[in-house]
Write the structure tokens for this entry.
Amino acid sequence: MLREAVSKHLRSEPGFRPRGSEPGRLENFSDAVFGMAITLLLISTTPPQNFEEIKRFTYELFPFAACITLIILIWHQHFIFFQRYGLQNVKMVVLNTLFLVIILFYVYPLKFLTKLILVGPLAYLTNEQVLLKEIQDMIHFRDVSQLMIIYGIGAAAVFLVLALMYRYAYSQADALELTELERFDTRASIMMNTLMASVPILSGILAAILYESPWAGPISGFTYFLYTPLMFIHSSRVDKKRKLLLEKVGENPAS
């Protein structure tokens, strides 16, 4: 149902003709891997054996929901790409395989970091001593910089591979018969994913500079707030230029 809803929305998108309306074997396999990633998030949680563990288990809901949200957002970008271009050749299989390998690697650092960030403050506010002890035992503050580097590598790699996929699609613009507007959207997607990769790269660099410092975690973590101004500026510029292009092509954007 989710695939059909997104597909219907994309078909109504002005100015871009979907070329991959029917999912191929590559997309179906990719969906299975995304499902496996979500399953890994769930089975990585120890089943509760008593009521106290049930209460602590409820705290797992927050990092679990955050992780699923991020994975669904990444899946959505992946789905948009294949709906738009429908590429199924050897080059795309290689890039897609690399993308899926990174997604499976990304799951555990993502779950670990979100649990550390979300469950820790909640346990402190509710004075859950057992849970606080568990959070404190998860990682020493001197190792936080390494965690941020590992997470930054995984997050950056996801978006860099997406950027490479869009770059390859742009190189096939003539074969795909992309219009001027579609070429613009493809370039905008390359830039968006490059910007999305730049933030975790910067975070990892800062974590490396502040290696084993107590400031490594807070500073490299707050770097991710740069997403808001970056995406706002990028989206504003893209929207303005896209509206001008839509006006230029008039009533028939596919021409």
